[in-house]
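Hi D.,

Good news: the full-assembly prediction came through. Inputs first.
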Amino acid sequence: MTSLSPVNPDPAAPAVSTPDPALRPDRPFSRRNLVQTIVGGYLPLLIATLVVFLPLLWMVLSSFKSSGEIVTTDLKILPESLNLENYRTAMTTVPFGQFFLNSTIVTLAGATIKVLLAILTAYALVFVRFPFRNFIFLLILVALMVPPQVSILPNFILIAGIGGKNTLWGIILPGLGTAFGTFLLRQHFRTLPASILESAEMDGAGHWRRLWQIVVPVSVPSIATVALVTIVTEWNDYIWPLIITDRPETMTLPVGLTLLQNSESNAAGWGVLMAGAVLVIVPILIIFAALQRYIVAGLTQGSVTG
Amino acid sequence: MALHLDRRHFLGLAGATASAAALAACGGPSTTGGGQATSQAADIDFSGVKPAAKIDFWSSHPGQSQDVEKSLIDKFHAQNPDITVNLVTAGANYEEIAQKFQTAQAAKSGLPGVVVLSDVWWFRYYTNGSIIPVDSLTKQLDMKMDDFQKSLVDDYKYDGKQWALPYGRSTPLFYYNKDHFAAAGLPDRAPKTWDEFGEWAPKLKASSGAQYAYIYPALAGYAGWTLQNMLWGWGGGWSNEWDITCDSTESVAALQWAQDSIYKDKWAGVSSKEAADDFSAGLTSTTISSTGSLLGILKSAKFNVGVGFLPGGPKAQSNVCPTGGAGLGIPSGITKEEQLAAGTFLKFITQPESTAEFSAATGYMPTRKSADMTAVLAKTPQIKTAMDQLAVTKVQDNARVFLPGADQEMAKAAAKILTQQGDVKSSMTDLKSTLQGIYDRDVKPKLKA
Amino acid sequence: MTRQLAPHPSAKPKRPPGPAAKIPHRRWTARNRRDFFVFLAMALPNLVLIAVFTYRPLISNMYYSTLDWTLGSPTATVVGLANYATFFTSNDAPKVLGTTAVFTVVTVGGSMLLGLLVAVALNGKIRGTTFARSAVFAPYVLSGVGVGLVWLFIFDPGYGVLAWLLRGIGQQSPQWINDPQLSLVMVILVYVWKNLGYCAVVYLAGLQSLPKDVMEAASLDGANGFRRFLSISLPLLSPTTFFLLITTMLSSLQAFDLIRIMTPLGTGTSTLIYEAYLQAFGAYNRAGYSAAISVVLFAILLVITVLQLRFVERKVHYS
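Then the structure:
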């Protein structure tokens, strides 16, 4: 029962089981109800949504503005025209297409391997007999506490030493070991009913079959959550790719974005940087918008299906 | 199945830690003796060495110089078909390029042939033994050292050796909006002293409609550099040799005057990002910015731009301008062949024609006396002011250029004074103790007796 | 930076003892031997990777922390615990620990409180909640570098939209960039903006797992709705709150990208993690000293984790 559960372990708390008469809902279309719905329901939602989207909208609008429209004290909200000059500058100053490809490869390869390793390790930790299993889990838990930034220098020395500088595998390799995914999946696997596995064992199914035919199919929401977090982390990872690459051919998007910033003169700076930010932010936003139904539902409803 | 963090587990953890320690130690620095690794003063003998076929050139493209750097490299390739120079953007500014260079040193791999190093970094590379003296290269490649602008090349002399050559070198310039000056009835020139400007500023502010009469350069990165102008004008400084003097009466008076210009007289502000932008946007009537910003300002400003020498102060009216910017160095951790190829490229990129082309594209100063600037000056006469001012520059204070991290500490102290209205004397006393600490800890033990 | 931030979506333990608990210790049988190798085949790759790229650097750091080593220098001097002594006796410790404490407390408190409010709003039975739920979560998945740049532009005292709005009402923009205290405020605001969606979604999961009648109490309708929410729903949400407290605290302590992009020199924002980075890779190049700060940070993170595990154990015992 030591699982790090975000939800109440005891849903049937007696203190609230007696219905409160004051809770009876109003008639659905009464005026009071309508005002309440708007003030208590829509208004906060509207504000929250605006707070999220206005900055991003500003980013998009600014990316179309010429430097004269930005470096001015007489600000206009809308750009004079849909001027793509900033995008052109951003794309010719640095190879954004290449960055995009690199980010995609790094994310896909890194996330796939990480999720796979997490599933295997978590299964082994929960269902396979091994001495010091809990000690190994403790080591994984402690690894979770090591901030990636403190590993930079030693890892740089190692990876550069074996020729990983300016390579995609050099970007991917140090992040492959996954304490986080292992931890989450182990916690989840421990909640699976023992009976289904025992019956499979009776049928003579080995670990491999038990894993892929029973454990994985019933754990899809948890695995999806781990996958999402892994993808997002890989895509946005910054400090390590920044250190291990110095050639545009192997840079990922966030690193490429910093490449846009220049040292002493920034006259046109903001417009081009906003164009660059659009190129980094919008792809993941589109992917998120396409998958949000599954992603957020997975996060919020996992407790029901688990 | 509770997870017990009992003693057995922790002992096990400690055991694992100990056994991995040996593995962990490899790859880091060696700890023999405790002697410090200062660059070898011994010259490297390059006779009989063939230059390498390929080297990297790490640059941060100061002054948006990527295009002109590419063009110079193409010309180099045409003249030296046996050596390929690969231009690498190794950072967005001098600090990032230094970070990359230092990390590469730690990994002992992936070093460039030629690296851009700023005024505050080359000495660190020297004390770390990361760069070689270029004397034997300049001799072997027959580079005319006496044709370099003396003050620019002397900046990289230490211990009787030349550790780098000047590249994107700049001084601060006083930029003013000629239209604002005319409207305020002021003479069409930069003020001779800050006191004179103190009299002009209220008129400027009243008539120009701009938010400020003067804007201090953005503190992050530039405060330590440009504030030397005021400190020197008032007879103070960050330091005198290795004596930290930032809390002297004169230094405090200079910064007090700066603080008053913001909070008491209310005609000055502090830039957040790039004073040159604030100036060309018309946010301020005047500012101080690098000569490297000149071409950018001329391009984007929609008014007549005037440039002049930096104003003096009550104690010193001239020689109150620091030099700055970047030079080029050659790492010690690469082969002789690579170093020779790097030297060949260094010779090319610092020759008079190259420095004139670089200057024309950015506004940085030509580093050679014989550089033919007639065409450049015909197009951008303002560069002349920067070149003339070179005669009245002063060598930067040791505290800024030789103490690691001092520039950042100065920026923080300046932020306290100029944006939080902190007490000048106590801020400077704090700064002094910080700088003294850096000196005692990081620099003094490494200096030659 | 999102590494350990995800909620555990399905950890509601319906059957208390997991299968692992039921396996009694046996002798070294053929099956055990087979399991031994199955375990190694499944777990070893991951464990080796963690050992090489997480533990080895951690231990290297502990070793480096005993050196006076300038980054970039090939040699170093062993100084024992002098780096720790310097950190705790100089001005650095109160400054850095203070900044870390302020940043962590405000970001954790801010994103949890706002997250809870948003979750309650999202929990209402009105149309559009699915969209709003995704919307508030969106910043959490965006690149810290991109987001940092966008907000930096918004806050820019010269040309930012915020400065423009303030000029409209006759005010001057605060010195977000130059003033260390305001820099910290700025980074905190953006950090909360980026992370409150995560808290909201986890809280929402907590709210939706409450029994139906409690959920109605939590919807803030009717008289005394707020009081009822405080006295009934909030205590029931305490496991969620505790989970969020720990995860957001750990990630706040490791916040890096936004600080790096918005305040590269750490003006006012040098938390432990950023100070460690600056000392080694910034202008100082004190690799040994930086390693010592890293170890201090690691110790703090470890203590929080241990406390959390202890707390969870005790709580479960008593309930």
